[in-house]
């Protein structure tokens, strides 16, 4: 049976978009419950400048606490944007680094002040440093399936970045559908092209459900052999300031679908659903996830 | 390019679940707007007993009005449960009859007071009468992918009913995921088995998005060659009396995804989105559809 790895990113990609800064103690409780439920990798936070994203200001502290008294098997990942982030990460015990560039020039300039080419060089240098330090590393291509600013992102642009990653020996590569534009047919084509560049690539994906295509895209990725999936508890990560209701693919909806297809039945879905309910209570609004509202299909059905 | 036919069922499968009885004049306006937007088939209502489902009591009147001054090319379909429904339908100008049985004994008994076997005989007899009258007919298997009462519905049960339909010369066959239990892998297996029974079958599908798998299931069906899709404007058809937020696959979300994949670009998505917004206003609640909230991805993207 195909291996499916779950990378929970809600506490980073979700919480960074919330107005409310969540207290560190609360985050620790949530992370420990995610570990307890049995997800494989948990993205704890992002090493951005604390003034730019105050929601992520406690990332170093979170890692220090979590690695001091480590429970469970989950790998703790952190997003870094540059060498400075890596330095911080090395001091507090990050186990896996996630770094990325945007395939859209406009998105890249807005996010980093650098062109895609410059950003790719910087990210590859940082990724190599992290690997030298003996750490697990995942590199990503953001806006890989389309961009809210530029629209269509040609596959050649994405494949060009992927080739540079591969040339640098970076094999764990995630494609992120930052704008939610991806369609299943596009996913088949792009991952197929990547597997043709290097059949030993450890492909990952990060899909959004902005337009309802999240699980369809995941299924297309599964069919083509992608093993690593990033998703977000309760579907956190929709922008609460706009009318866009749905954010990242919702972890518990995804696990529910997976378990219906007999994958990853050892993950405790009910614990994830309880946690999603708690998020809805904490933020006092309806979350994009569906299964926490409907309840799961009973196991014997 | 694969042919994809859109059968809009919101005014039947959606409105029959609403507390509020919608005035006939309002329904006519909505149906005319659906015709204008370019969907292929519109399910106008259901020929049930008006006391049982008062929301559908004006079905005869709707057909009479719509066929009197017919505009557009859309085929007008109606759900009939028995010979009595067919008689009513023949008087008011139904263009396509939809009839079905449930593959779940419990669901069948609750719905019709008959076993699946008895119900199948009745439905086949009625369907044959409709065909003799020169009408288009679609027969369905409800609870084809699982049942809220019984749980797992063995594929053999579904295929047994399909075989009886085929033996009776009924080739337009829809599988309905009444409970929302279907998964893409199951869809591949079941439709594959049906195409093996008769490769010339005109397969259709009716999926719900209860647990978020709606578009994933549709994509699986597209890949295996299914041409006929039933969906519901704004995602109408979730039960507004329970916490289950999502109902039928949402038409405009589906069309949006299709058009991103270059299918059916002649359908006017913006008109469908406007209509979905109107439903949210009319029922004064948020609808399950996502695209009417987020707005579509601009055409040039």
Structural features, described:
The structure is a homodimer of 301-residue chains. The first copy, chain A, is α/β, with parallel strands linked by helices. Helices cover 44% and strands 15% of the residues of chain A. Chain A folds into two domains: 1-79 and 232-301, Alpha-Beta Barrel (TIM Barrel); 95-212, Aldolase class I (TIM Barrel, Alpha-Beta Barrel), CATH 3.20.20.70. In chain A, strand 6, helix 8 (184-197) and strand 7 (202-206) form a beta-alpha-beta unit. The longest helix of chain A is centred in the middle third of the chain and has 17 residues, at 116-132. The radius of gyration of chain A is 18 Å and the shape is globular. Mean pLDDT of chain A is 94; it is low at 240-245. The interface between A and B is large, with 45 and 44 residues.
Radius of gyration of chain A: 18 Å
Count the E strands of chain A.
8
- Secondary structure tally, helices of chain A: 12
CATH topology of the largest domain in chain A: TIM Barrel
How many discrete domains of chain A? 2
CATH architectural label of the largest domain in chain A: Alpha-Beta Barrel
Report the oligomer: homodimer
The whole-number mean of residue pLDDT values of chain A reads: 94
Question: H/E series of chain A, N to C?
Answer: EHHEHEHEHHEHEHEHEHHH
What ranges of chain A have pLDDT less than 50 throughout 5 or more consecutive residues? 240-245
Q: Assess the beta-strand content of chain A as a share of residues.
A: 5-15%
Helix content of chain A: 40-55%
Q: CATH class of the largest domain in chain A, please?
A: Alpha Beta
- Biggest beta-sheet profile of chain A: 8 strands, parallel, barrel
Under CATH, the homologous superfamily of the largest domain in chain A reads Aldolase class I
